[in-house]
Amino acid sequence: MAEYTPTEHGEELKADGTQKAEDRVNNRSLRPNSDSFKDFMTNNWDNQEPEVKALESSKYIPARLEALSKRFPGERLVIPAGQPKVRNNDCDYAFRPDTTFAYYTGLGQDYEAGAVLVMEPVEKDSEEAKAGKNHTPELFVAPRADNSTSAFYKDPHYGEYWVGPRAGLKELKAMTGIETRDIAELDDAIAKNVSDDANGEGIRVRIVRETDPELTAKVETMREASGFTDEDANTCADDKLHEFAAEARMLKDDYEIREMRKAIAATKLGFDRMLTRLPNALGHEHSERMIEGAFNSVAREEGNEVGYDTIVASGKHAPILHWMRNTGVVSSGELLLIDAGVEVNSLYTADITRTFPT
């Protein structure tokens, strides 16, 4: 009969040091919810602070928000950044915020997955309203998940054990100049004083619909419960918000022009590198991809990413408008069509198409 030795945690070990089968599920000291595990995961870590400074774009945000506010006075405007999207299993695609959100916050790259910008209408009789102000912009974001909280290691999206130091409320306010609030307060904030009453005292809510389907569903449920039951009218109202933002972006300020020029310059470097790689790529079974890789490496070196999937289309692939598989062989004596653009960190991109003889 096997001999067992009790341990400090209450289970017993065999003489060879292994656990009894029935105790393997009871070793609570090694479970994620045990105090010892929590202590191990949250103590003695270097609590790194994210680098924080006001973004260059923050100088231009007030004018953009003011124009938006004047177009929709007295209405609550909800502009989500969007949520991470799963690539496979527990791997997400690199996050890119919605363009409307990026335009009105000045944020680029992957700072703020799940964040929401809300334009909150001021009280009608307030001093702000008397001074001509229509809205207060509020940026709802998740607090930092540093090692002072179990989210540090439990949350793969925000936990700094997984993703490193990230900007929270204090940091994003410093970066954008916009007041920040905890994302946990969002549901109550967007539902406040919403009603379609006869006195006109209720607040209409508009949302950029396609960015965050779960949040859009919440807004639709809240609107229906508050008397805004005409789905077509609600959708039309939301579309007007999106259309206004799209049209506003057509007129570029000085900052945007500089960023677009950066994107064009980086894209030119990418084309130069592709042409340098071309002679070695000829005849290789993955030559379209070799040329694509040359451009994409420049996009990561000089910017955030490619602005869209790079098209490298040789021979019979060249007439295909969106040939993005890039599985073909580039042979001598053919025409090679390339459509590519670098997206810089501010999320502005270039779009250049050229055809080269090989």
The biggest beta sheet reads:
5 strands, mixed
Widest sheet: strand ordering? 8-7-6-3-9
Helix content: 25-40%
- Helix and strand composition category: alpha+beta
Task: Specify the number of helices.
Answer: 12
Q: What is the domain tally?
A: 3
What is the radius of gyration computed over CA atoms, rounded to a whole number of angstroms? 27 Å
Characterize the quaternary organization of these chains.
single chain
> What amount of the residues lies in strands?
15-25%
Number of strands: 14
What's the CATH H-level superfamily name of the largest domain? Creatinase/prolidase N-terminal domain
Residue runs with pLDDT of under 50 for 5 or more positions: 6-11
- Looking at the overall shape, the CATH architecture of the largest domain is 3-Layer(aba) Sandwich
CATH-derived topology of the largest domain: Creatine Amidinohydrolase, Chain A, domain 1
Q: Kindly provide the name of the CATH class of the largest domain.
A: Alpha Beta
Please tell me the overall pLDDT: 90
Order of helices and strands: EEHHEEEHEHEHHHEHEHHHHEEEEE
**Overall 3D form:** globular
Task: Set out the fold topology.
Blueprint (H helix, E strand, L loop, with lengths): L3 E3 L5 E3 L20 H8 L18 H11 L4 E5 L5 E3 L2 E2 L6 H7 L10 E6 L5 H4 L4 E7 L9 H4 L5 H4 L5 H8 L2 E4 L3 H6 L13 E3 L5 H13 L5 H18 L5 H28 L5 H16 L2 E2 L4 E4 L20 E6 L1 E2 L8 E6 L1
Parallel strand pairs: 3-9, 7-8
Antiparallel strand pairs: 1-2, 3-6, 4-5, 6-7, 10-13, 11-12, 12-14
